[in-house]
Amino acid sequence: MRIGELAEAAGTTAKTLRFYEDQGLLPPAERTPSGYRDYAPDAVARIDFVHRGQAAGLTLAQIRQILAIRDGGRAPCEHVRDLLDARLAEIEQQIAQLTALHGTIAKLKRGAAQPDPDTCSPDQVCRYL
Amino acid sequence: MRIGELAEAAGTTAKTLRFYEDQGLLPPAERTPSGYRDYAPDAVARIDFVHRGQAAGLTLAQIRQILAIRDGGRAPCEHVRDLLDARLAEIEQQIAQLTALHGTIAKLKRGAAQPDPDTCSPDQVCRYL
DNA sequence: CTGGACCTTCCAGTGCAGGGGAAGGTCAAA
DNA sequence: TTTGACCTTCCCCTGCACTGGAAGGTCCAG
């Protein structure tokens, strides 16, 4: 199948598939005599895996690592578990930071419940911040 | 004061201050006869304001808008309040997305509590995802 | 044989907030 | 006078995951 068909089957674009090949996420495709990329149907599964990895918040670099392990003939399960653990920790930290920021902003707002422009000196630009 | 002194006083770098000037966050500085930027002491307050804006999660573009209103002689309080309201909504949405992602990943992990590489088919790359 | 849909490569840009480093000018102290 | 710290402008680079577009080749229907 050609790159456009594969892209449609996998829910992405031809441009993105060339980009993935360039980044080492897809192996270099076979070529027709005229130079067109020619994919086997199971390429869809590989792209689906990339999408599942992205849905789990992994970067393309991390997904490439997993694929490289699998391509090397080993099972990447343990590496995947480590990546997911790290991702969970990251997410927890991000949520904590956002929660703190939410509190900070809410406090700023409470500290200026009635905006009174006259009490905002030009020096401090705005009493709100 | 020269740009290096100002940078140290404001807790940033000379490079960043030139960048801010370029981006319209700081007015073009006075120059000494030899071409050095020459700042009044109150420049520190303006940079502090930029930092407070950043601490509230505003982008430099948003901070520039606020400063432009103040520089135009008006009080930016209402615009600031709108920006903070929008930021709060964004943060809430981000937290919701991260929470959902956290749940998704945790479920993936539970679905594969005992990693068994043999049950991972190469086709699906990894049972975990 | 022509038009249009598809394909190829390559270069460049997006948004965000700066950082790195070159090439050259200035200033104060030793 | 010379060193070394500072300053100037300039352009390119970073990370992330693409996206746009130009210039040209291929394939198939009408």
Note down, in words, how this protein is organized.
The structure is a homodimer of 129-residue chains. Helix content of chain A is 59%, strand content 3%. Chain A is mainly alpha-helical and 129 residues long. The first copy, chain A, has a single domain (3-111), classed as Multidrug-efflux Transporter Regulator, Chain: A, Domain 2. In chain A, α1 packs across α2 and α1 crosses α3 (43-55). Chain A is elongated. Chain A binds a DNA duplex (30 and 30 nucleotides) through α2. Chains A, B: This is Heavy metal-responsive transcriptional regulator. Chains A, B: It comes from Microbacterium istanbulense. Chains A, B: Pfam families: MerR_1.
Tell me the CATH topology of chain A.
Answer: Multidrug-efflux Transporter Regulator, Chain: A, Domain 2
- Which percent range describes the beta-strand content of chain A? under 5%
Domain module tally of chain A = 1
What general form of chain A does the structure show? elongated
Domain HTH merR-type (chains A, B): 1-69
Keywords (chains A, B): DNA-binding, Transcription, Transcription regulation
Pfam families (chains A, B): MerR_1
Protein name (chains A, B): Heavy metal-responsive transcriptional regulator
